[in-house]
Hints:
By secondary structure, this protein is an alpha/beta fold.
Amino acid sequence: MKVTVARPTGLCFGVRRAISELENALENVGKIYGLGSPIHNPQEIERLEKLGLVVVKDPADIPPGQPAFIRAHGVSPEVRASLLRRTDRIVDGTCPFVRNVQEKAALLRQEGYRLVIVGDASHPEVQGIMGYAGEGARVVGNASEISPDARNGKIGLVCQTTQKVSLLEKVVRGLLTHTEELRVFNTICGATLERQQAVMDLAPRVDGMIVIGGKNSANTGKLVEISREAGVSTLWIEHYEELDGGWVREKENIGIAAGASTPEWLIRQLISTLESARSPRGMD
Ligand code: SF4
């Protein structure tokens, strides 16, 4: 059995940067309140909690004056203001690429465009961007969700950083038909595009793909979709212990891809488990 890892794969610049800022801060102050999970990976959260991270859902859950952490997904201006009312000790891990989407949304709003955000309305990054997008903004997660009135007037479009280009293209086509003016910022981040392309390139060369990453990670889910759309039998796991031994034994060429929030130690564990499966008694 041959094992090939997609390149690039795993932790992206933004998540790596945010986690390293969080680790530095934890080393200095011992305990930090993170607003939402700082990384969509349960195993990594467990490790950070042991270092002193406390994950909370609401700024009101942070004891006054205690240090708080904003994750790579960023927050809306309203949430930032609530945080500042709680504490002035904020470590801001917002990814610069997410910050760019927020700024583009604010610019379009200021210039009189009605905003369409291509993305998943329930995702924290999109909720943060919505706070900059102004009244009448809407989130579109599927080209079929474009209602006739969404096409009227001046439309400004930005995209969640981890979306697939194919969805952005479909939404742009759907809006173009009846819109007087359409201004589009392609805000899908380079790290996402490179990781998606790496899966597309690897898929035709393998007979099975393992995508490792949190089940709550949007970008990992996109890699799974891309691999399945390429017709490859695909397993989505969070941890090597979820491997299906029968599935592995049937394969001759296995590809590995990891979401932008999957730490390297989890990928290494998976590779060594697959390597041990090459031995006659492997994965019994
Ligand atoms: S996927 Fe892109 S936008 Fe999101 S955190 Fe990583 S580098 Fe930043």
